[in-house]
Write a structure and sequence with these properties.
The protein is of the alpha/beta class. Helix content is 41%, strand content 14%. The structure holds coenzyme A and zinc ion.
Amino acid sequence: MNPVQRIYFNEVATRDGFQIEPNFIATDDKVALVDALGDCGYAKIEVTSFTSPRAIPMLRDAEEVMGRIHRVPGVEYSVLVPNRRGAERALEARADELNLVMSASETHNLANLRMPRENSFAALAGVIRHVDGATPINVSLSCAFGCPMEGDVPQGELLRWGERFAGLGVRGLSICDTTGMAHPAQVSRMAEALQKHFPDLQLTLHFHNTRGMGLANVLAAVQGGITRLDGSLGGLGGCPYAPGASGNVASEDAVHMLGAMGYDTGIDLSKLLALARVLPDIVGHAVPGQVARAGRSTDLHPAPDFVAALRAQFA
Ligand code: COA
Ligand code: ZN
């Protein structure tokens, strides 16, 4: 029998999830949610982002959130960082990992980060040199499977940006399908190419369920050998600077699917579902995740009363 495959989950609801929410979520609620997520068995939690408060007002309390969360040993507390200023704030807040971000698409980089990709690369390369190994660096490449404004992003282009960051000694790359354009055959090809090009890096795939392909893409990734995934509680999420962006793959739906298939996610699904069920109260609206509403596939329902009579009749 094959050994059980371990899959490592990174929860992004309080960053990718909250950044697109219209109504400010209280700092107390953010801290409480991160603390509760810390008890669910995640490998990593992307807590917040150190971006311009004007660009992402929802996460303007990043320092306070990082300062107040209770850090569970064994869980990494990561933060998104777009530039040098963000990196300085993140280091000050003692983040366990800096998740630097730039886009594989020039147009999305201009929309999201207000500069060409080369400028982002130069700024982030400066951050990496400045950090000098003191804190692990992950680089998220947005719009890696396609851009809602440019269309196709050739795989070779994505790999070239990955190689440039790998050359600077980063620990990992997150390959992000920012607006749910990826399909499973593309993900299979990407998974193979990534592992071939970057055998020594932590490779994480990040999917949005914008077109209902999220779980299919998760499956293509893990069947293609990828062991690290991003998920967002309740399926919240989206980039405010990517037209048409909507929620990530719901963590609880992905954990439920992979658990049913025999993968070991390390996550306590009961705790996760309980959190997913209180999430609508925190954000003030229903959330797209499905398993929290439907229950697990193993949760059974009583048969209608007349079934017993039918059984007797057909016995
Ligand atoms: N943290 C806090 N403030 C920051 C900052 C950071 N990381 N980066 C820039 N700022 C502030 C500057 O101090 C300046 O403030 P001031 O006008 O009061 O002096 C202002 O933001 C503009 O600075 P500038 O360097 O000109 O940045 P910009 O306006 O070109 O914005 C980004 C660039 C990247 C900082 C901004 O677009 C941003 O934060 N985007 C968020 C991207 C994101 O998270 N998208 C979703 C996830 S993919
Ligand atoms: Zn995302």
